[in-house]
Fold:
Amino acid sequence: MHDEHGHGHHEHHDASSPEVRVEALEDLLVERGLADPERIDATIRRFEHDIGPMIGARLVAEAWADAGLRQRLLTDADAVVADMDIRGAEIEHIEVKANEPGVHNVVVCTLCSCYPWALLGLPPNWYKSPEYRARVVREPRAVLAEMGLELDPSTEVRIWDSSSETRFLVLPERPAGTEGWPAERLAELVTRDSMIGVAHAADPGGH
Amino acid sequence: MLGPMQSDPHKRGVHDLGGAGGWGRIPYEPDEPPFHADWERRVFGLLGAVTSATARRPGEFRYALERLHPDDYFDNGYFGRWLAGFEVLLAEYEVFDPVDYSARLEARTGPIPSEVRRMSPERRVAPVADRVPSMLPPDRPVPVPQRRTVRRDLAEPPRFRAGDRVVAPTPTQPGHTRLPGYVMDKPGTVAKLHPAEVLPDSTAHNRGERPQHVYCVGYDARTLWGDDAEPNATVYVDLYECYLTAAESD
Structure:
């Protein structure tokens, strides 16, 4: 991919490199009045700083702290999300799946990379990878073990393939030793991976 | 290099990866950031502008990605396939002339060897398949919501209920679908209903909304993978009503 005879600041990219292509494409769209660089910047900033797993983590922590809310989240997550004024892309319809002793949930999108953006931000590369999309439906225990999560053989695994506009969020189990913690402190234990279902919530001893 | 693009509906598309063999370790990186390079940021930031000018119908952008050559689909990851999809859509919608775009690339990097010329349609992308309307479920008038959403309220009751055994046969025509190959022709059990939605198999092809009830269908791993299946696993897939027929009870 290195272009030895190039000049200027593109000397390490050839014309098929995404760096060069996206620049040319953005220039064309901006010239035609179809894109606005400031809006592009604002969108990027929003997804790098304002929208991320902390939104889903707050939802999970509130559900851990409040049994009534937990029940509502599991039966009508759309209403809870609306009540908490969480808005944005890719949450047309949300379903929350609770992990509990004997049941473990994990989320995938085998056909593309559907993911609840407004709750978790943009998905990590591994979630979008062909390796994860191909394998987690076929060998979920092997995939989870590879990612550091060993499930007991007696635990039922439920894999949720996001093939409609419904998006899934896993409610991880509340770690032991967190009795009486306020939701703000609990939220620090709720990792992105635990809400996809490839990890448990963080160990409170680690905080 | 892989062969020419296929239009055989029985051949699974490049994107239809569930259960596909040959893939190795998950490229897992704890606490990954949303972007790994600045070009990925720009691609992401352009999504709204590109789809506003081109693929506005549900399923249309996904279908553009599904029609990509495997090199474009896999080589630069998720944002790489978005970028290739943008180029395809902008050319197909004639927002810009591929020759003009290529000239801009060459202005930055020097002449493009013909084998990597980005906008060569025959190499890069399969055409939009001709979807025969008579093979789609009938359209039906429903109130269209004020806000932008794929959800619709259907007057007709759903054909299936939780607990019903169903099967989704392999589609008989090529084109966009949300039916993953690995569940085709396998019996499953309706777990619950989701809100009804417009049918992407139709909207992606500009054949109307044809809204459908949507079912969450559970498949026992042994049904999907036979003796290779891991124990005690169920895969849940969301399927549009027109995909499904009643399965013989077992």
Summary: The longest helix of chain A spans residues 18-31. The longest strand of chain A covers residues 93-98. Chain A has a mean pLDDT of 92. The beta strands of chain A are 93-98, 103-108, 156-161, 166-171.
